[in-house]
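Figure 6 in text form: structure in, sequence out.
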């Protein structure tokens, strides 16, 4: 965790994930009122990919808005608790 992708000549997989904008502070169902509208969100997604690519990293991307099945292997037992 002390090295960046640039430090290790890594690659980046960028996948759109609107559920990250879920507000879970009220009840059991997340609310997505704070998520950007699809057109704005896709523009931001593309801008992010362009900026990461401009840094010299290899970038792979998912299809914006697609139903994707993503698998990964985490390296190390790290847990982040996100709280507002």
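Output sequence:
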């Amino acid at each position: 965790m002390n090295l960046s992708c640039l430090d290790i000549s890594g690659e980046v997989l960028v996948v759109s994930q609107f559920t990250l904008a879920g507000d879970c502070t009220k009840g059991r169902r997340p609310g997505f009122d704070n998520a950007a509208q699809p057109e704005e969100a896709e523009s931001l997604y593309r801008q992010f990919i362009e900026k990461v690519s401009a840094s010299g990293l290899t970038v792979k991307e998912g299809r914006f808005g697609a139903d994707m099945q993503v698998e990964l292997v985490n390296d190390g037992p790290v847990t982040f608790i996100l709280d507002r």
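Caption detail: The mean pLDDT is 85.
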